[in-house]
Every structure is written in structure tokens, then in C-alpha cells.
Fold:
Amino acid sequence: MRDKLEQRSFLFMLMLVTLLFGIVLEPFWGAIFWSCAISIIFYPLQLRLLAKLGNRPNTVSLLTLLASVVIVVLPVLLIAGSFVQEGVAFYQRIDRGEISPARFLEEIRIAFPLLPELLERFGIDLENIRQKLAEAAVAASRLLAQKTFTAGQSTLSFIVNVVLMLYLTFFLLRDGHQLTELLVKALPLGDERERMLFKKFSEVIRATVKGNILVAMAQGALGGFIFWLLDIPSPLLWGVVMAFLSLIPAVGAGLVWLPVAIYLYAKGDWIAATILMAYGALVIGLADNVLRPLLVGRDTKLPDYVVLFSTLGGISLMGINGFVIGPLIAALFMVFWGIFMREFNVTP
Structure:
């Protein structure tokens, strides 16, 4: 009796201490998550370097970390900096009245006179939308101005998180295998099942991060190129926006190029509008329809509809990190149920 009480008390304290430790680390969850993701993605490169350089874990981990910085971190930081500059310039033009979303909507209404009547049938007031767009543009420009004054603190926090992420990545690259074996030994799920779960975890992380980022880069670059070619303002800004939105499967980049094509039709620029519409559907859409199933769905072994819903749910709950965490949870869900059906749900 006493032994059971001691065991239950210990397990309770173990859970409590683990929970408290998780709460302590909560401000750094993003940095920890991306450290794990980067170390998993570049683990094959580390194995190749180990084969060439021999048993020199510190040197190999440092070289792998430098490769991840050059390939991933620096390009992301450069694109983010350019995006902020373009965004500030764009919203300053809105604030000065050079760009008016309400005027764009009015031009669309004039070009398509049947549109207000059609929207009214669905209970949508075009005038109210125009007013909301104007208010949103002003609010966004004010918010951006406010954020500019606090940029120093935000930048410092961002730099600290990046440094912590890279610092942890080095140790995960160097000691990741030992940590995995330690977790296998500690978790009471059965070694075979745990190795299967860790393998699936690595597969999904590698597939979703690499796949989605490659698709985002392709769609953002293709979208920014056609905007530049058609002389649409701020092509870099819209290219980055399309890259971010392309993390949403099926519809992402279309949320940018389709309204722009409709506006070009409303202005009477039929050639540019038709080029953009055809290019968006055939070229940008093809990058999503071909690359995503090959890079994400195939490697995660998840159906396309599961990838779509888990990605949308993850982003809505956890922000930008959700495009990886959502499919990861979905994959682990299917693995757990697969183990249950195979090992526990035995029919007589």
C-alpha cells in the first residue's frame, strides 16, 4: 500500500514539475520548435559530413549550423526586411491617399454594374464593404506607425530568439541522437512504438517544412515576377504576401492575384488582366497542385484533404507555426490509431 502511494505521489510530482518546466519555457517555445525543425531537416547533411570528416561532432555540428544559416536563416531575414520596407512604403501611400481601397472598389462597381445587385441577393452591402475597407486602411497605417516606434524592442526580442534558436540548434545537432535514445528509454510507450513515432515526427517535420517552404518560395517568386512584369506596384511586397498565403493549400496565393486581376478588368486593362488570370491559374496554381502533393502529401503519407484541414486548423490556433504543427498532430493522430487498431483492437 505504501509503495503504491509513493509511486502515485512521485508520478504526480513528476507531471507537476514537467508542467511547470513547460510553463517556464513558454516564452521560447517558438525558438525551441524551430531549433528542432532545423536540426531534423539538416540531419542528413550532418551524417554526410560525419562520414567525410570522421568523429568530430563539434566541427560537424558547427558546419551544419552554418549551412542552415546560409540556406535558411539569412534568406528569411533578408526577405523579411525587404517585406517590412515595402510594407511601410505601401501603407504610407495609403495614408497620403495615393492608394485608396475604397476607390478601387468603386471602380469595380462601375465596371460591373450588376455586382451590387448580385451581392445584395446574398445579403452583402457593397457600400458597407467600401467603408470598412477605408477604415481598415487607415487603421492599418496607424498601427504600422505605432509599431515603428516600438520596433527597437521588437527587433531586440526577435534577435534574442534567433540567437537562442541557433544556440540550441547546435546542441540538438550534436547531441540529438543521444537525446532521442534518452526519450525512448524514459517514455513508457514501448521502444518499438516510440521509435515509430519519432520516425514519423521527423518525416512530417522534414516534409512539411521543406515542402511548404519550397512551394511558398516558388509561388511567391512566380507571383512577384508577374506583378513586376505587369508593372503592378510593390511586386516584392505582394510576392512575399503570396508566399505566406501559399502556406494555405489550394487557395493561398489566389487571394492576392485574383482580386488584382478583377481590378485590372474593372480598369479596362483587359490584356494585363487576362495575362494575370491565365498565369495565376496555370503557372502559380500549377506550382501548388503539382509541388505540394509531391513534397508534402507523399512524404507525410497524409491525404490532401487532411493536409488542408490540419494546416488551416494549425494556423488558426497557433499562427505561423501551425502550418507545421497542424499536419504533425494529424500524422501522429493517424499513427496512434494505426498502432491501436493493429495491437489492441483484436477481433476474436
